[in-house]
Amino acid sequence: MSANQLNEFQDLVSNLLLRHRSLLDVLSKFDQSNASVHRSVVKAVTECGCIEIHAHKQEITSEMSMEEAQEAIKSHVKGNLCESCLEAVSGQLGRNMFYVSALCNLLDLKLEHIVEEEAKRCSTLGLFNLS
Asked: What domain of life does the native source organism fall in (predicted)?
């Protein structure tokens, strides 16, 4: 998504956000939408079965090169979302992004700037940026 598209989306959310202009209301709606993302992924596993989770300890060390670590790390996910689950998960993620953008609007933050700063942080910290 380009910076222009992020700005356009944030402006659209600002124009559409009539009922939920309260910061507390948007925070609660964001939490609800986040839970809905989780639930749609869980349903893809437990009800549909289009994806499976095979979790185990990730075996990486700080001594590994980036390439070695990428080969060692597994996603735990087997399979692919079916069309129905893809639509459900994508829709819930979109709703979640709506409330992220709404929070940015209410706190006078630019989504574009947040994404740029996070990209810089990720590229600076590399593989272990979320440790």
From this structure: Bacteria
